[in-house]
């Protein structure tokens, strides 16, 4: 297989006829299903595409995401394409499922205070995300491949960090006025949207209920040493998830055991599989 596009076409205005046909058919199909898109654009890696949707309710967004994935696969297959939602489909390539979350009360955004600074509930929510998300990896990064997306310099986060319009952070504060919100950048494109969103909302609730406060915003490179790391393997994530009092309080013991067991099944599946990469590295060297 070869990528649909051969180079970095991030924000490009011109696309190949094959790519242009696919994008137009996808937009038409989604609009017909009641899922109008905000934008469809090529991204930085060859063959990589970003699709964004208007804001909406949480459950409806998750339902729509599943319909979107089905449409991408069906329309792509008819066009002779092979779409994938792998978090790391190629070495050095990462694709995310960024969640954009806001805080509202009585129809009004409460993410900013009267002076325009982050409100106390917003700071609590950020602190909850930073505290809990490193312990919830199995919910937003569910398989072995998921963790190959997290690499320094990749714009995929590797630390529990936050900042204002800082794409190296796990939590990015973005927007203005009532459009100001939190972008949670940790889930990969392979994430189950219901579980990834449940993890983020539970983490925000954890911070608000316990009135946690975040450290200073990261103003430069969040890949620096010293910050709290996100799990770098499914094995690390499963251990943190299974033994976290915070996760058990937020989700309940039955849920924790179920998804920890699911992660173990994934680990066991891969444990004895011999890969092409191993053969290339060791066939003539061992």
UniProtKB/TrEMBL annotation:
Keywords associated with the record: Ligase
InterPro entries according to UniProt: Gln_synth/guanido_kin_cat_dom, Gln_synth_cat_dom
Lineage: superkingdom: Bacteria
Gene Ontology MF terms: glutamine synthetase activity
SMART domains: Gln-synt_C (SM01230)
Domain GS catalytic intervals: 1-286
Family named by the database record: Belongs to the glutamine synthetase family.
The protein's name: GS catalytic domain-containing protein
Species assigned in the record: Streptomyces caniferus
